[in-house]
Amino acid sequence: MDCVLGLDIGTTSTIGILLALPDRILATATRPVTLSSPHPGWAEEDPQQWWENVTAITRELLATPGVTADSIRAVGVTGMLPALVLLDAQGHVLRPSIQQSDGRCGAEVAEMKAELDEDSFLRKAGNGVNQQLIASKLRWVGRHEPQLFARIATVFGSYDYINWRLTGETAIEQNWALEAGFVDVARHELDDGLIALTGLPRAAIPRKVGSHAILGTVTAEAARATGLKPGTPVAGGAADLIASALGAGVTRKGDVLLKFGGSVDILIATDKAVPDKRMFLDYHLVPGLYMPNGCMSTGGSGLNWFASRFCGGLEPAAKAEGLTIHQYLDRLAAEIPAGAEGLTILPYFLGEKTPIHDPAARGVFDGLTLSHGPAHVWRALLEAYAYALRHHVEVLNDMGHATENYIVSDGGSHSALWMQIVADVLHRPVQRLTGHPGSCIGAAWTAAIAVGLTDDWSGINRFVAKAGRIAPEASTRQTYEDGYRRFRDLYERLKDRPAMVTT
């Protein structure tokens, strides 16, 4: 039996999947991840926890009946990007990762904007000057942690780190390199001038590899830790949002994926690169295609924050009904009318990335009264992320991309209430999927392509089926038109106030 293993190094969990080609999901496994925010706007995680999760998940999957280490023909790893992981010359992790959603480097972004011709940078790097750039994060490290900065020997991302633990090979996958701001999009190569903006020696940035290239093979040490067979090929890897889009079948122009994970993402397939500083530009996993996209700093992580910090008193009632706290809050919020009775939220709890690129933005609750309760706040949060998606759609349309077919995926898409709100706010139906386990499936399929088990990128569609479509309700249209205008106006009115700025 030919199997491939996919691993997803996610913001809120590490997930593994075992596929048997051509069309069976044999098993999945997951472990939680701790996201730390020790200061406003910060988002950090422990790379060692990712590796411990990987070793536990791999051993769990290898215990699947009929599966042995010899069954695994290849491994593919995906993860959030561009998280920043730093190693010293001995291969020790120097500090917690700085996550892609981290907003601490506002001053460094402003410094780079003053230093560079932003239009020229955009044309060359494909992405604008913003908090996503690894150079801005590294400049923050250099300014605030200079002794640590001087010890940096290797810079890479979340799934690059796991690939290194598996193979001993240091490399950066093409989309991490692109979103990091290191790739000349015209030449598709690392650019020394772009890398120099970090202030680090060129040698600190490893070689770039393609997503479905063979990076290396599992070492004896990694085999002892994971249970995998030494010599098992490991593919270059994949950005989580791109891997998820592949799994959802987003390969035609006009197909749009709305991804509801730890962050909320929007992606569209296209055959041409259109750099725009409001959005991100990535390579599609299918060679020759691109995937312009937007990524919010929060999403599921914002909902988890509210549920865990403020709704503990509802846990007994939720358990009594056999529901998770999220499901219980959905049920309560469904009884609240559209518009959350005047409550509007800006979900910028870690600053915000696309399309406003404002690390100093903050979460705002506007219109809160003593008549509001947890259900109102929950509904207003769901509406806030839907409004933010509509903002992204307007930007994509302005860039010349026709957004035609909307597909929804990942954990948040299981919420019927949230998806109805999204359909209502966008005034377009959304297509739900069944059997889509998330980004891990895209990582596994990329590994299968890498070792020649298949050459059919569309073959991944065998694993994921369409479920019901959710149509917009005409009765809420005017409410959400008004709500969207309030949402957009609220940020514009507050963005320059000192209260929105981290000191």
Describe the structure.
This protein has 503 residues and is α+β, with helices and mostly antiparallel strands. It folds into 2 domains: 3-241, Nucleotidyltransferase, domain 5 (2-Layer Sandwich), CATH 3.30.420.40; 300-393 and 475-500, ATPase, nucleotide binding domain (Nucleotidyltransferase, domain 5). It has a 7-stranded mixed β-sheet, with helices on both faces. The chain has a 5-stranded mixed β-sheet with strand order 3-2-1-5-15, with helices on both faces. 53% of the residues are buried. The radius of gyration is 22 Å and the shape is globular.
CATH C-level category of the largest domain = Alpha Beta
Q: What count of structural domains?
A: 2
Please tell me the CATH architecture of the largest domain by its name: 2-Layer Sandwich
CATH superfamily of the largest domain: ATPase, nucleotide binding domain
Low-pLDDT regions: none
Helix content: 25-40%
Distance between the termini: 58 Å
Ordered list of secondary-structure elements with their pairings:
Blueprint: E1 3-9, E2 13-20, E3 24-32, E4 44-45, H1 47-62, E5 72-79, E6 85-87, E7 97-98, H2 106-115, H3 118-125, H4 134-144, H5 146-149, E8 154-156, H6 158-167, E9 171-173, H7 174-180, E10 183-184, E11 189-190, H8 192-196, E12 207-209, E13 214-217, H9 220-226, E14 233-235, E15 238-239, H10 240-247, E16 255-260, E17 264-268, E18 280-283, E19 290-295, H11 300-310, H12 315-320, H13 325-333, E20 344-346, E21 364-366, H14 374-398, E22 405-409, H15 416-426, E23 430-434, H16 439-450, E24 465-470, H17 477-494
Parallel strand pairs: 1-5, 5-15, 9-12, 16-22, 22-23
Antiparallel strand pairs: 1-2, 2-3, 4-7, 6-8, 10-11, 13-14, 16-17, 17-19, 18-19, 20-21, 23-24
